[in-house]
Write a structure and sequence with these properties.
alpha+beta, four-stranded antiparallel beta sheet, 4 helices
């Protein structure tokens, strides 16, 4: 009789272990994720604040320009009648958005130029507002208004 050899026995495998994450690894991963999310949230909020400031600087510049153009259209008699510091009604500037008119304050200061009383006025415009995080900001513009125009002033009165 011919006997066939039995196949060799394989060595017994150790039982398969299921490895998972330890509590320490999960805790560290949680802290890393929380740090990443909070940092990105802070960055987005900072970006929105910066965008708000930039938008309001642009609006304040437009308010100043609008008021300067309005003053340039006035004749000397109307400019000479202006004096002291007055708050300008911005509802006339923002006719369609009362919220914007309430957000900004425009102050106009008109004074005589020393040595040129009755001939020239100094006009200072100051726009102020508060940012979304409560910081007060201002922009200002100063100009001079001469009785017969600056061109005429420089080429006639200033030379005499």
């Amino acid at each position: 009789m011919h006997s066939s050899p039995l196949p060799p026995k394989r060595p017994a495998r150790p039982p398969r272990r299921r490895r998972g994450f330890t509590i320490l690894e999960v805790t560290i991963a949680t802290f890393v994720m929380a740090f990443g999310i909070s940092t990105s949230t802070y960055t987005v909020m900072s970006g929105f604040k910066t965008l708000d400031v930039a938008r309001n600087i642009t609006l304040s510049s437009q308010i100043l320009q609008s008021e300067m153009e309005r003053l340039r259209l006035m004749d000397w008699g109307d400019i000479a009648a202006l004096s002291g510091t007055n708050e300008v009604d911005l509802n006339a500037v923002f006719t369609t958005d009362a919220h914007l008119a309430a957000q900004f304050t425009l102050t106009r200061t008109v004074s005589d130029v020393a040595g040129k009383v009755g001939e020239m006025k100094e006009i200072l415009l100051v726009v102020s507002w508060t940012t979304v995080d409560g910081r007060p900001l201002t922009r200002q513009f100063k100009t001079f208004y001469a009785k017969d125009g600056l061109y005429d002033y420089y080429y006639t009165l200033a030379r005499s």
